[in-house]
Each structure stands twice: as structure tokens, then as C-alpha cells.
Amino acid sequence: MAPVAQWPALDRVAGDLEGQVYRVMRDRILQGQMPPGQRLLSTRMLALSLGVARSTVVKAYERLKAEGYLQSTTGSATRVAAFTTPPLQGQAAPATLSPMPVVEGAGGGLFEPGVPDVSAFPHAAWARHLGARGRSLRVHDLGYGAHSGIRELREAILDHISATRGVIARPEQLLIVPSTGAAIDLLARVLLRADRSDGTVAWMEEPGYATAQALLRMAGADLVPVPCDQAGIDVGRAAGPPPRLIYVTPSHQYPTGVTMSLPRRLALLEFARANGSVVLEDDYDSEFQYASRPIAALQGIDRGEVVAYLGTFSKTLAPGLRVAYAVVPSWLVSEAAAAQRLRGAVVPIHIQAALADFIREGRFRAHLRYMNAVYATRMAAAVSALRLRCGDRLEIGEGAGGLQLAGWFRDAGIDDRAVVQRINAQGFALRAMSALHLGPPRPGLLFGIARMAPEAADAAAAKIARLIKPGSSGG
Q1: Which of 54, 70, 256, 376 is 20 to 30 A removed from 232 (C-alpha atoms)?
Q2: CATH number assigned to the domain covering 4-84
Q3: Under a CB-based contact definition with an 8 Å cutoff, are residues 445 and 431 in contact?
Q4: What topology is assigned to 137-361 in CATH?
Q5: Domain HTH gntR-type: where (predicted)?
Q6: Contact 206, 227 (CB under 8 A)
Q7: Distance of CA 163 to CAs 244, 283, 424, 461, Å?
């Protein structure tokens, strides 16, 4: 570890010396300043150097071990745990990451899109925070006042997405909601009203997220598909009157996986500003990037207050937590918050408080780094296996990020829905790309990689290869 002289001075007036030692070491591990395998000073030596009781350092070490930052065996030195190192750019995750098995019964089948792996969820740490907050909620948090989210969680989320996604906002602009779907529904119903002069037209990426399509329709939207290519949505190719709302997934387009180019981003923002449109930026799994750092959010370069940024913990932690958020333009806060309260789209206070602590203490960031490495390994294995086994029939995407992988049939006349029906009858849960189009479809298959163990990918891909052959019954 770094020389003790380089440590920040412990604040003895503030107390909690154990927590201060813990946080310094945790942050250095997370920032890569203490690399995997590095040997730590003995608890006695560090205690002497810092001028604290040995028990203080022992408890800090034990806390770090319990949370997985450190590892040790009897008779050997304590070292930084291997898995805390993020994968090298452009490479698979380190071999020290043991692949987790496919979680049977947690979803509909193999290669299921949209389902994260929750088997590595940090149950013990979460339970501690949840229990502590459940026992000590403040009286003013138990009333109706925090319907849009407690300030602690708003600030914690903003600190995170400001640092990792480049989002620029104030806590008051952030609404805590049960899901991204709830956020889309809420904002669509506020923005798309037939009594407004700008109407109910909404533009949707083509192909695009089917759930968003359905929610916008339910809110009364007149949907207009706008083509996406390798540079993302192209507003210059849209037809008809200007929209009130534009739904996009710019950092990792669903389902193609492409990243919207800077020229397209600037064109979209300028178009929205000039036409009074609101852009819904759905950033649901963009924190998972395997060959580079995550690209900054569209919201961060919006200077016209036209972007509402949507994020969720369903993919990064667990869907069962039912926590997502929307960062809305300042001019929309009052109306959106009123609609949220009216619709009751709220998250229980003890869940919010526990999540705020979970983020503040660095546990969310550690879990995210770990899962990014796990998913990188799985994506690399899936891409390799599918290209090897199915490359003659499917054009497989790059798999540079996210939890799903696009595959396009080289034969544009194939019925992908029939193919998916045949494949899924054999224990898979793929989606047909044609189901994600509003206009004429391009046939293909959508794969989920989150729960596919690397060692199982080749056998699964080989079985799919047999099933997509003309006339195959999969026998």
C-alpha cells in the first residue's frame, strides 16, 4: 500500500477512526491506487504508524474483508482482492474472476435479454443498511413530503451520475420512481396531451425498446419511427410534423448496441430546442462498457433544457429493488412532481434511505465494477461462440457494452418470429428483432448475455446454429 505519510490526517475530533481507515483504503482500492494482490501492512505496523489502537485497524481490515475488498488466508499476509481490478480496455476480464453459473429458473431461458444476474447481489451489505435504516428512520421522512424522493438519495445518485455519466443537475430535478417504465409513463402523460397545441406526436428509435413503444402508445402518443444506423438516430430522416417527445437510448442503443455519434447528438439537441421537443434519454444499462469508458450522457451536453434523463438500478443491482430515477429539466419539475404524487409512483422510504447509504459507502460502485468485469467475460464468450457457430447465417454485433447482443439474419427474407419460436421451444428465451420495429422490419435475433456462463456459451451457440438451419426442428 502507499506509504502512511501519504495518508490524509485522521480527524480525531470527528471520531470513528475505524471508519476513516476503512474509507481511505476502500477508496484507494476502488480508484486503482492499491492494485489487486498488493500486500498490506500488518495491523500492528499500520496502527503504530497512524497512532491509533491496533483494534481500530483490525476492525477496519475485517470490514474490508467482509465486503470483499481484501483477502487473506491463515499464516499469510492480507492482500487486495483480485476481482476489484476492472478489465483491461479491449480485453476480457481477468482470469481470477470465477464465472458464475447460469441461474436456472430466474428467467425464461438461455440467452434471455433484459435480465441481469442477481446471484452476486451483495446481500449481507444490503441487509445491514436496510436493517439499520428500518430501525432509525427520521420522523420527517415518514410523512407525505418526500413523494419525489428523499434528499439523501437524490444527492447520492447525482454524485454518482455526475461523476460517471456527466449529468448536470440539482437534487430538486431528480425524481425517484419505481422503474424506468414508470418514469416514461409519467413524463409521457405530462407531455403528450391532446389539448396542447404541439399535439401528441412522439418519435421513436427504429428498431427500439418495445416496452417504451407500448407505454408511449398507452399515453396517447402518435408514434413515428425514426431510423437508426451505426451513428444512432437520424432526425434528418424523420417524416411528418415535429414531435412533442423523442425517445432515445444514445449511449447504448436498444437493441442494436450502437453509440450515437457526437454530430447526431448535437443535431438531435438542436432539433429539439428549435421545435420545442423533449428528449427522453433512457440510459438503462450504459454503465456496462467493456472496451472503453462509458460515454457521457446526452443530458450533460444539453444547454437548452430539452433532455429528461432516465436511469435505473434494475440492471446494475437488482430488478426487485424497484428503484429508478428521472432527471428532468428545471421548467418541468413542478408539473412532473405533481403528476408523480397524483399517480402514487413512489418508492418506500426505507429502501431509499438504505440505497443512499449503500451508494455513499462505495458499495454500489464496487459492485458495479465487479459486475462490469463479469459481464465483459460473458459478452466476449457469447460474441466468439455465436460468430463461430452462427456467423454464416447471422451478422453478430460488436458486443462492446450492455447486457444484450444483436444478431441480424444475412437472409433478409427469413421469418425471425418463426425461428425464435422454434429456438425458444428448446429452452432459450431469445427475442425476434422484427418485434422491435414499428415499420418494415429487419429480421434478427436478440440475445441476453448476463446469465450465460462463458463455458456454456459454445454449446448454446452450437444448438442455436442447428435450429436456425432451414427445415431444422432442433432434434
Answers
A1: 376
A2: 1.10.10.10
A3: yes
A4: Aspartate Aminotransferase; domain 2 (3.40.640)
A5: 15-83
A6: yes
A7: 30, 15, 40, 38
